Amino acid sequence: MEKAKSYALKLLSKKDYFEAEIKQKLSQKGFSKEEIEETVLYLKKHGFIDDDKLLERYREVAVQKGKSSIYLKRKLFSKGIYAELSYEEELKSAINLLENKYRGEKEFYNIVKFLKNRGFSYSVIQEAANKFLNGE
Fold first, then answer.
1. Do 29 and 75 have their domain in common?
2. pTM for the whole structure
3. Which of 82, 98, 120, 130 is the most exposed place for a label (fewest CB within 10 A)?
4. What are the alphabetically sorted keywords of the record (predicted)?
5. What are 14-28's pLDDT values in tens digits?
6. What's the structural domain count of the chain?
């Protein structure tokens, strides 16, 4: 049990992990299911892993960087988490992306193509393009 705890803490000292990721890492290292469950319980109890806080941080970073809901869903799915951006978060993300990265002509068609290629839904694309072109 102590080896599992120290290994988990070593992992967490480098970066944050979701509970599912920690379980997978410990399992790959050869620890028993009981050791893994006890270790995860210990980590949760002492606040070393908190899936809700980490998920919120992933969402904030995705919005700041202008990532689509599809991108976030795919990234989190690979980590064993099922979540996506809300409509408002995805819209804010699309607008951030346009303001920071879009350098093309300010035509509706070009903006739609730019956002569509990055995985945004059409309803978000339409609203973000209109706000961007109207300077809102």
1. no
2. 0.80
3. 82
4. Cytoplasm
5. 999 999 999 999 999
6. 2
Q: Are 43 and 8 in contact (CB under 8 A)?
A: yes
Q: What is the pLDDT of residues 77-100, one digit of tens each?
A: 988 888 888 999 999 999 999 988
CA-angle at 51, arms to 14 and 8, nearest 5°: 40
Q: What digits encode the pLDDT tens for the residues 116-136? A: 999 999 999 999 999 998 876
- Work out whether the CA dihedral 16, 18, 23, 27 comes out positive or negative: negative
Residue 15, domain CATH: 1.10.10
Each residue of 34-62: b (16+ CB within 10 Å) or e? ebbeebbebbeeeebbebeebbeebbeeb
Please indicate, yes or no, whether residues 73 and 30 belong to a single structural domain of this protein: no
Cα torsion 26, 39, 36, 18 to 10°: value is -60
- The dihedral through the CA atoms of 130, 101, 74, 61 has a sign that is negative
